[in-house]
Structure formats: C-alpha cells, structure tokens
Amino acid sequence: METAPIQRPADSNHLQNILQEVTNLLRKQHLVEHVLERSDTPRHALEQQVLHRQHLSELERKLHRLHVADIAYVLESLPLEDRLTVWDLVRADQDGEILLEVSDAVRESLIARMDQTELQAAAAQLDADELADLAADLPRDVLQRVLDTMDARHRARLQTALSYPEDTVGTLMDYEPVTIREDITLDLVYRYLRRMGELPDHTDKLFVTDRHGVLTGALLLRRMVAEDPVRRVSEVMARDVVTFSPLDAASAAAQAFERYDLVSAPVVDAQRRVLGRLTVDAVVDFLQEARDAEMLGRAGLREEEDLFAGVGPSVRNRWPWLAVNLVTALIASRVIGLFEGTIERLVALAALMPIVAGIGGNTGNQTSALIIRALALGQITGSNTRRLIRKEMQVALLNGVVWGGAVGTVAYLLYGNLKLGLVMSTAMLLNLALAALMGIFIPLTMHRLERDPALGSSVLLTAITDSGGFFIFLGLASVFLL
User: Is the pLDDT of residue 41 over 60?
Assistant: First the structure.
C-alpha cells in the first residue's frame, strides 16, 4: 500500500532536513556509480547494481511522501545533474503542480528534460488558470495538443486567461467561484453544497447573484452556519463586497487583500457579472514573485537566475548593470584624478574620502527604499510629492549636521587640523543632502518612465553618491585647505 504524502507546513529547519536527506541519498548513489565504473568482477558489479537500485527506491519513496512545494524547494536547491535525477523519480501525476511551484529558471531546465508526451500529460493535469501560468514555457505544438483535448468551456477559459496583460488580476484569478441566487433559502444552499461534495480551496464566502447573473452580494460561510435555515440568502448576505476587474493591477489587488483581510473576492466584468475569483494564495504567490524581482532588480540583475545555471547564462544576466557600474566607477576615478595634486599635498584626504561616499550611499539607499515602497503602495501623489521631498531633505540635513559633526570631530582629533574637520563636516552634510535627493528622484523618474523603480536603483545611487561625494569633499579641500 502506497504511503500518503505528508501534508504539513514546513519551516526552514524542516526544509533543510529534507534537503540534507535527499543530498545524502544522492551522495550514496554517486558513490555506488563510481564503484560500478571501476568494478572488475560480474558478482561485485551485480551487488553494486542492487545497492544502486535500493538507493534510488529509497529516494523515490522519500519524494513520494513530500508535498509538491517541498519537492520544488529540493529541485531548486540541487545542481543540475542531481536535479534531473530527482525529477526523473517524481510521480508523473505531480509533474504539473511542481512545474508551477518552481522558479521560471528551474522550470526551463525541467521542461528541457521532458519529451512532448510527458509535457502534454503534465499540462493536462492543470486547470485553465494554472495552465495559463505555464503556457509561455511550453512548446507551441504541445500547447496546441492540450488545447485540442480540452472541451469548449475549458479551452475558452484558457484563451481568456492568456489574453490578459501580465501582472493583472485576470492572470491571477481562477474560474471556480461558487455562486448562488439571492432568492433561495439557506436550506437550499446547504443542499447545493452537499451535492458539490467539496468546496474550492480558500472559499470563505459564496457569491450571490440575481436572476440575471449580476453580483448583488456575498454570503459569508461563518454567517450562514449561524443563521436559521429557513431564512433567505438576501436577508443575511453582505451587500458591500470588494470586487475586482480582470484588468485591475495585481499590485493594487494585493494591497486591497491586505487592507481588508480578504481570503477571496469576486472578479466581475463591466456589468458586474461574475467571471471568476481572486484568492489569497494567488496574491501571496504574486507578492513573493514581486519581492524576489525587486531584490534582483536592486542588485542590477535583469531576471531570475537559476542558482546552478551554466556560466554563460549567468554571465549574460549580470553583464548590463556591471557595464553601467564600470562606467560610473571610471567617472568616479576621473573625479578623483581631477584632485590628484590636492591629495598629494594632504594625504589624509585619501583616508577620509571613503567615509563621505559610504555614508552618502547608505542614506540614498534608505531614502530610495522608502520611496519604492510608497510607490508600490500607491501612497505618492502629485499633491504630496513636494512635501515628501521637503521632509526627506530635512531628515538628511539633520543627519548631516549630527554625523558630519561627529566625523569632523574625529578627523580633527586624528590629524590635529581644525579646517580639515570643518571640511569633512560640510562635505558630509552636502553629500547626505545629495544622496537623499537622488534617493527620491531616481525611483520617481523610473516610475514616470513606466520602468520598475527598483531596477538598478542601488547601482545608480552608489555611482552618484560616490562621484558626488568625492567631488564635494575634494573640491572643498582644494578651496579651504591649500
């Protein structure tokens, strides 16, 4: 009898233990394979082959007991050769769900391993909304075959899901809303739900429509079970319902889910007819992907990268912003070159320069992080931008006075030069103001250009605060110290 998969939440320690167990089994397998290659007797080779099959069977049983999300974690954490070994041992009926769980970069390596028959079988396991997420990575002929095997209703759903722009509610919604009429009794609702047998995941409410299919409210399950079954739906339903259009931005929908503590919400068309529903699990997945993309963008990476990808793809992914960084570094070096004579005459400047640039970069990144977050939450408008700039400049100037005074004092104590301390304090103050200003304007400018505000912002900020900090500090030193 096959052991049922373990369905349990996994914390980081549990996931690490799973990965360690899988890695140990793979290591034993590799050892046996090495011995088999060097075996010189048929008997010894046979024994090793039996042991090899035992290790694979043990690994296969281990995988069968895992949740698909845990298997995805293991696959993402293994080098390509081991990943493909594990992938070959995964149950075929889990292929589709796992392909949805893994990152885009890892998904490519798994799909490359599968033949068309396997891909078609995996795609056939998925609902229309799930298949839409996978469609871009499938070969066109495989996707066409899957479409050909669908009934008209599911084919229309998939084509509709593929028609919505990226990062809109339409790409996240599913097509399993449970709708009921407002003029029936709760007792009839109970009978209807019993005939269904099982509710879709994350169902906390039933969507109520009139006889024309137009949304009129929602019946909360927790309210329904506490009411008299003879009452009508219209008497106990909530009429104030948060709804979304399929063309609404997914980020705005995520904010609404957080603000109103939603578990599910209806997606309606212009006539308020129910098209589908948006659920909290889809929103959480979207937020996770957005967070990962922001982290990569701030580091100057163009796209998600497989941790164990080949050298070529990894290098190409990192080239663009490295090239930008190289140019900005050359600019910073030329700024320093303009003041070579100043540095030669006062060597202490070379030791103090990195302090001015480093503090400026930190200030700029702090300001930039706040602005990017505010843009994501839709908190910045034309009416409050000026006030925000004024506030951030005040913060930067106050920090410049405090920390510039502190570092200027340290410079005076180290080198016994009062003018050097004053120059250091002034340079710190001016560079912090510059950093705060750039921390505001770089994200705002990229947002207005309809680009991701986080993309490469830290690279640009570092370039400006380095070059600007060097120019301000060395320029002041040239004027007042020589």
Answer: no
